Amino acid sequence: MSQNEWLERHMIVMDAETFKEIILSRYGDMYRMAYAIVQDSDDAQDVVQDAVTRLWSKRRELLHVESPDALCAMTVKHLSIDLLRARKRRPQAAVAEEHDDPSDYPLARVEDADMLMMAERMIKSLPPSQQEVLRLRSHGDCTVDEIAAITGLSPANVRQLLSRARRRLKQFANNIL
């Protein structure tokens, strides 16, 4: 259907059936896009629902839209970005209060402890130089130049050790999982 045919067909008023045909038929695509941006199923569903609600409230203006696909994608993209920005602005304490405390679940505590012990074993299996630079980088939040100054290594050597350590940890994790 060409753009003109689409416009002529829907010129009067976009009723619920037309909205369903034009906008809601793209719900799956909108969800996939939202999920790709926000990386959370519940948040992606919220974004799509907000997008559909917003588009429904502007259904009279939708009669003149050239590409419903682009409109849906643009709406989802903007709402997803807004959600990510809101996450950044919210203090971590507020986020923690919204979710159940994982310590309420004994199994979760055991699994967390097991994962921590496994990670420590994997790190201890690395050569001492890789352990040192990895701990300084991840736990000490040191830059490559700071690690180089602390260890007496060149920055290039530090980057190489970090790369090797990460690669080896990834291999361990892939073998275990």
* Helix-residue proportion: over 70%
Cα radius of gyration in angstroms: 25 Å
Strand content: under 5%
Tell me the major beta sheet. Answer: none
Topology as H/E string? HHHHHHHHHH
| Tally of DSSP β-strands | 0
Give the N-terminus to C-terminus distance in angstroms. Answer: 49 Å
Q: Please give the count of helices.
A: 10
Describe the structure.
It is a single chain. The chain has 177 residues and is mostly helical. 75% of the residues lie in helices and 0% in strands. It is built from ten helices and no strands. The chain has helices at 3-9, 16-22, 27-38, 41-57, 68-89, 92-98, 106-124, 128-138, 144-151, 155-176. Helix 3 (27-38) packs parallel to helix 5, helix 4 (41-57) crosses helix 5 (68-89) and helix 9 (144-151) packs across helix 10. The longest helix is centred in the middle third of the chain and has 22 residues, at 68-89. It starts with a helix and ends with a helix. The relative contact order is 0.07.
Task: Please describe the topology of this protein.
Elements: H1 3-9, H2 16-22, H3 27-38, H4 41-57, H5 68-89, H6 92-98, H7 106-124, H8 128-138, H9 144-151, H10 155-176
Helix pairs in contact: 3-4, 3-5, 4-5, 8-10, 9-10
Features:
177 residues, mainly alpha, elongated
Could you give a quick summary of the protein structure above?
With 177 residues, the chain is mainly alpha-helical. The chain has helices spanning 3-9, 16-22, 27-38, 41-57, 68-89, 92-98, 106-124, 128-138, 144-151, 155-176.
